Amino acid sequence: GGIVEVDETFIGGKDKNKHWDKRGRGGKHAPSTKTPIIGAVRRKGSVVTRVLGAVGQYECETFVREVVSTKVSLLATDESRVYGGLTDYPHEAVNHSAKRYVVGAVHTNTIEGFWSIFKRSILGSYHKVSRKYLPLYIAECQFKYNNRFNDDIFGEAIRGC
C-alpha cells in the first residue's frame, strides 16, 4: 500500500578501468559487464530487491507484478521504457533526462537513497563484489535497511538460527 518507488541500478566498475579482456564489447549502448539490480521501496517502509540477468520490459514488469500490489496509491518510477506496460497501476514517472527529479509526490529519491547506501557499502566495507555473490550482498543490505528502526537487530538476525 501507499506510495511505492521502483528503480534499477548497475553494479560493476567502469570498462575503462578493467583489463582489456574483461571489458564490454561495442560502444556506449552495448551490453555492459555491469550487473543490473532492481528494487522497490515503500516510502517510510521496506525495500525488496532482485539481481536481474538483463534489464528489459519483461523482467522489470515481472518483478513489479510479483512484489507490488495493484492497490498502491502511486507507483513512482523514472522515465525508463521498461515500465511502460504497467497500466494496471496508478503509475507516474519523473523525467531525469530533463533534470526533473521531483514533481509533487512523484520522485524516486527513497530508492535512490537505498542504492547510495548499497554502493557505499561496497566501497567502504566489501571493496569488491563478484557477480556470483551479489545476491547475498544485496540481501544483507536489504535486511539492514528493513530493520533500521529495530532496536534488537542482532536478535532478529539470529532468530532463525
Topology at a glance:
Elements: E1 3-11, E2 35-42, E3 47-51, H1 57-67, E4 74-78, E5 91-94, E6 102-103, E7 106-107, H2 109-126, H3 134-146, H4 153-158
Parallel strand pairs: 1-4, 4-5
Antiparallel strand pairs: 1-2, 2-3, 6-7
DSSP, total strands: 7
User: Strands of the largest sheet, in order across it?
Assistant: 3-2-1-4-5
**Overall pLDDT score:** 86
Q: What is the N-to-C order of secondary-structure elements (H for helix, E for strand)?
A: EEEHEEEEHHH
Radius of gyration, in Å, reads 17 Å
| Spatial shape | globular
- Percent strand: 15-25%
**Secondary structure category:** alpha/beta
Ends distance:
31 Å
Low-confidence stretches: none
Number of helices: 4
Oligomer: single chain
Query: The biggest beta sheet, please?
Result: 5 strands, mixed
What is the helical fraction, as a range of percent? 25-40%
Write a short abstract of this structure:
This protein has four helices and seven strands. The chain is of the alpha/beta class and 161 residues long. The longest helix has 18 residues, at 109-126.
What would you note in describing this structure?
By secondary structure, this protein is α/β, with parallel strands linked by helices. Helix content is 30%, strand content 22%. The chain is built from 4 helices and 7 strands. It has helices at 57-67, 109-126, 134-146, 153-158; strands at 3-11, 35-42, 47-51, 74-78, 91-94, 102-103, 106-107. Strands 3-2-1-4-5 form a 5-stranded mixed sheet, with helices on both faces. A two-stranded antiparallel sheet has the order 6-7. The chain is globular, with a radius of gyration of 17 Å. 20% of the residues are buried. The model has no long low-confidence stretch (mean pLDDT 86).
